[in-house]
Specification:
- The chain has helices spanning 5-17, 20-26, 31-45, 61-88, 101-106, 108-118, 131-139, 185-188, 201-213, 226-234, 244-251, 282-292, 312-315; strands at residues 50-53, 56-59, 93-99, 122-128, 145-149, 158-172, 182-183, 193-195, 219-222, 240-243, 256-261, 267-274.
- With 322 residues, the protein is an alpha/beta fold.
- The protein has 2 domains: 5-88, Orthogonal Bundle (Arc Repressor Mutant, subunit A), CATH 1.10.10.10; 92-322, D-Maltodextrin-Binding Protein, domain 2 (3-Layer(aba) Sandwich).
- The radius of gyration is 32 Å and the shape is rod-shaped.
Length: 322
Amino acid sequence: MRLDPVSLRLFVAVMEEQAIARAAVREHIATSAASRRLAELEAQLKVQLFARSNRGIAPTPAAYTLLGLARSVLGEIDGIARQMREYGSGMRGHVRMVANISAITQFLPAQLQGFMAQHPEVQVHLQEKVSSEIALAVAQNAADFGILNAGRYGGDLSYLPYRQDELILIAPQGHPLTQQEEVGMQQALAYDFVGAHVGSVINALLTRSAAQLDMPLRLRIQVTSYDALCLMVAAGLGVGVLPRQSAALYAGTLAITALRLNEPWAQRQLVLCLRSLEALPPVARALVEHLIAPAAPAGPAASGLPAYAPDALSRSKNPLDN
């Protein structure tokens, strides 16, 4: 049985108006067409809904039962239309995003809190991955978009500027390096290091820098998170490298000192990657616009120059992870 919502809505109008003619006017349909629809509805349901006489129509007990059912069904249909409109306006939906640990620990908590406070019906599913895996997930449509380090990752992806990221060196309080505010890798490599997890960009940067300086990298221990790295450094097991704002989360509670790292690779660009901004679902596009809005620098970009050129990734020599 295929019930027509138009006929159900007309039936509800007849019950409420107690007259076919008035219901027909309300539903913008000819009276004859309204009578025909009611007769077809009775034939479909195989039950008499109205007793007809010269004085008009009188609802049967079946009609009163159908009235409650019809109102419930029509309410559900109206709810579907309303929720779909909300999806279309970006007010409700599900967003799949992936990001590296630098973005997750430094920038995303406050930004996501602000966005979800404005749009409480939006669900954001966030996964942490290294940059090469982020690019792959976006390219394969396993995620709507991702945040990663600028680099060459292949695939037909677009990139938007997100944040500038600075790597620093942390050392235990009282360590010989803490006698100065800025160090280079040539000085730091004289000491043991607490390294990040295998395959991370930080380890790759440290390894390459040591090779360029023809000095050994003494990784005393490797950990899988920034909090573990800070704890190991505070325990005196070595020095470590991590993003400045991530280190700031622990500097007030752990016995560590942050030092500026005087190396060109310490300044990094984080970018947002996606397949196409125009092809994103409205709710995902709204989140992207929320995330990148504060990223515009106050320098040349403010005067109308582009803040970040997507083809800059093709010029990068270091497609590293994390």
